[in-house]
Design a protein that fits this description.
6-stranded mixed sheet; single chain; Rossmann fold; ligase; 321 residues; cytoplasm; magnesium
Length: 321
């Protein structure tokens, strides 16, 4: 019997549109001989199943849908929400209560990795990869620009502590621009992280656990034509070159893939994850972990799978089981 799969998309953050693109790609890739995929959209005030131009409200008590002649229940949730309420672990807690299996990392692992500052300190304690110097600033809390710059230097990066797709991020080169950049980042989050700027080669590495084995994918090199790898560069191919495999040595490739697998295991991750790095003088710095990476047609993970000759539909089937 086919499994009913809820492809859960939407969410409350600036990444909603990316989530819809990811969901569309997942819906198309799922093997229809094995699964009945349904698009479930989550907004702050409403959860609903969308089928063409028809919408059906979700019963949040048991994550079911009342259709004309039967109650639709789901066997599995493929979470395609970037940002809250999924990348921070909230939705996973809901599914845990209901006993519905899902595609992403669990509550604790997701919430920790979504907090960039806390997660960086967590990973740093294991001494498996370099971490950039950083300072955390909380909204409505006084901060000292000179003390921040003393730690991070200039230029530095300012970004929301819990956000993705480079929303609210800024590269600051002058002291006078730091406070305005922090204020801008507060539009996305109530905590802002200021990091030292590291010049080097930016790469990203997908990793997946299938049948109990953690396996890093090929590495992609990212060459942004903008001053930073922002939303435009991530989702418009005219603004960034993405090169798979990355133009780095075999030795460095192996080192990064092994580091990715270590980080995945240390963090207790599940499903498909992507780790972003920057390489400076052969030293590897972790930038962040993405527990629900983009899976759009223009995203890194599908391209890395394709380079290995793997079909997305096969990987999703193994993931769901």
């Amino acid at each position: 019997m086919k499994k009913n799969i809820a492809v859960v998309a939407g969410g409350y953050s600036s990444e909603r549109q990316v989530s819809l693109w990811t969901a569309e790609n997942i819906m198309n890739a799922l093997d229809k001989s094995l699964y009945n995929p349904y698009l479930v959209l989550i907004d702050k005030d409403r959860w609903y199943l969308q089928a063409g131009h028809t919408e059906h409200d979700i019963n949040k008590n048991n994550f079911s849908v009342s259709l004309s002649d039967y109650i639709l229940k789901f066997d599995y949730a493929f979470i395609a929400i970037h940002g809250t309420p999924a990348e921070d672990g909230l939705l996973q807690g809901y599914f845990d209560i209901l006993g519905i299996p899902y595609s992403a990392s669990g509550v604790m692992e997701s919430s920790l990795s979504f907090n960039k500052f806390a997660y960086n300190h967590f990973i740093k304690s294991f001494d498996v990869v370099n971490i950039a110097k950083s300072v955390l600033v909380l909204e409505n809390t006084a901060y000292n620009v000179d003390e921040i710059i003393e730690t991070t230097g200039l230029p530095c990066f300012v970004k929301p502590n819990q956000q993705g797709s480079s929303f609210g991020i800024a590269k600051v080169t002058r002291k006078d621009d730091l406070s305005p950049a922090i204020t801008k980042a507060f539009e996305q989050d109530n905590a802002v992280i200021i990091e030292e700027f590291i010049t080097g080669t930016e790469v990203t590495n997908g990793v997946i656990k299938l049948n109990g084995e953690v396996k890093a994918l090929p590495i992609t090199e990212v060459v942004s034509k903008n001053d930073l790898f922002d939303f435009q560069a991530k989702y418009d191919p005219d603004f960034a070159d993405e090169i798979t495999p990355a133009r780095i040595s075999d030795e460095l490739t192996k080192q990064i893939q092994e580091t990715t697998e270590k980080i995945y295991k240390i963090s207790g991750f599940k499903g498909i994850v992507r780790i972003d790095y920057i390489i400076r003088d052969n030293d590897i710095y972790m930038l962040e972990a993405n527990t629900i990476p983009g899976m759009t047609s223009n995203s890194f993970i599908p391209k890395q799978l394709a380079y290995e000759g793997k079909e997305m539909s096969d990987i999703l089937s193994q993931l769901i089981g």
